[in-house]
Amino acid sequence: MISNPTSGKRENYLNWNDFFMATAFLVAKRSKDPVSQVGACIVNQDKKIVATGYNGMPLGCSDDEFPWGKKTSNKLDSKYFYVCHAEMNAVMNKNSADVKNCTIYVGLFPCNECAKIIIQSGIKEVVYMSDKHAHKKETVAAKRMFDSAGIKYWQYIPTDEKVVIDFSEINWNEQRQVPETPQKMSQQD
Ligand SMILES: [Zn+2]
């Protein structure tokens, strides 16, 4: 473990950008989409997370009944008409009154539809990891709107390739043991 020689403070802790992007990647793991799992994390100016979201079917539209396919002869049988993108879900699921002046961290550059939602919600900054659809018209349109609306966007390069979540770092089994002494004391009371 690396720590500061003067104070002893641990130094290899997650920085804010890594933490928020890692949160977006973690919530993406909730997605049922077999091809594309995208997560988003909205952060306010106090560095507090006010929303997360991942791509999924609308409320009441069963993950098991609605289609997840991409290439179907009838577009009604593909996912495109139905799936809500991560950014939309994050904005709609916010636990704050609004997301004005917030920053959204998202795994993939927003599409044009999500760009509109981001702009209208008052979000002022977009931090993304992948811009793999940069050539698509949806992305070009999104950037055009962001530029016009004064939304800052920038690609985040993570400090490390991986952030590992290891449940065994804390011995949860040991913590679950009930201490004996307090029990005896309470019996005496
Ligand atoms: Zn979108």
Automatic annotation (TrEMBL):
UniProt KW Metal-binding keyword: yes
Span of domain CMP/dCMP-type deaminase: 15-153
Reaction(s) catalysed (UniProt annotation): dCMP + H2O + H(+) = dUMP + NH4(+)
Keyword check for Ligase: no
Transmembrane segments: none
EC number(s) given by UniProt: 3.5.4.12
Domain of life: Eukaryota
Key words of the record: Hydrolase, Metal-binding, Nucleotide biosynthesis, Zinc
Cofactors, names only: Zn(2+)
InterPro entries for the chain: APOBEC/CMP_deaminase_Zn-bd (IPR016192), CMP_dCMP_dom (IPR002125), Cytidine_deaminase-like (IPR016193), dCMP_deaminase-rel (IPR015517), Deoxycytidylate_deaminase_dom (IPR035105)
GO molecular function: dCMP deaminase activity; zinc ion binding
Gene Ontology, cellular component aspect: cytoplasm
GO biological process terms, semicolon-separated: nucleotide biosynthetic process
Primary enzyme class: hydrolase
Purpose of the protein: Supplies the nucleotide substrate for thymidylate synthetase.
Record family assignment: Belongs to the cytidine and deoxycytidylate deaminase family.
Protein name (Swiss-Prot/TrEMBL): Probable deoxycytidylate deaminase
Species of the source: Parthenolecanium corni
Taxonomic placement: Eukaryota, Metazoa, Ecdysozoa, Arthropoda, Hexapoda
